[in-house]
Amino acid sequence: MLWPNILEAVKNRRRFTWILLSQNAQVTGFDGTTLQLGFVNAGARDNFASSGSEDVLRQALAEQFNVQWKIEAVVDPSGGARLPRLRAAPRASAEAAVAVAVAATAATAVAVRPPSARPLPSPRPRRPPHRRRPPRRRPPPPRHPSLPPPRNRARR
Q: I need a surface site. Which of 13, 19, 112, 115 has the fewest CB within 10 A?
């Protein structure tokens, strides 16, 4: 159950990336150094690649597990049954492979990190919610010519 933990770390960093991954992607393969994500369509994959979401996911992996894996985004509408370059693995075994790799590299990743390395930056602060402007007052309807002209009122 590492993928939900990874998604939670991504959610704390950037909500757009979390939505993109949780609704459109799944782990389809892992070979020890490359995490392969299968996206439901090319648009979701291209959006992931062009929006900086790959870096957000990489940072979340580094924060959670102290690992630096390559991330490969592929179109996989079949749900993980066929993989183009990595060895074929069903979704459950791909997640199990990620779990084994994290366990194997967690001890060494902590020891390899130099003590002088700076801590990871904190997530960006959230912007305050957008306030809507009140609607503009509508002009009064046209007056009938037989009525007296309106009094001059001060506008608010």
A: 115
